[in-house]
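Message: Just now I want nothing more than another pair of eyes on a protein record. I am handing you a single protein, as its sequence and its fold in token form. As I understand it, each token names a local backbone shape. Take your time, and here it is.
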Amino acid sequence: LARETSNAPEDQMQLVLIVSDGMRSPKWGDPTPWVRKCAEEHIMLCFIVVDKAASRGNDSILDMQSVSYEGGLKITRYMDSFPFPYYVVLQDLQSLPQVLSDALRQWFELLKG
């Protein structure tokens, strides 16, 4: 997340698109500090979750649950604790160009904003 030294204004915002299946690996660790660091550096992260399982009739990432033990057994929806504040769940890969253009349009609206 190193930013090059330039004459760019401090309020300039950058957009990073992350395309993945959305499944976190334990070896990743917790991405929350990186998400926070990006926000501090005026970098907007947009996570595009490719939910191929839903298109094959399997369980969608939207149906997945997380289990934790906090004084008792607690079951929550996986996406309720998704660490990226801006995300899109893409169930049809053919709609990726439209999703990307929508994300860019919304990003430009935020910049004007």
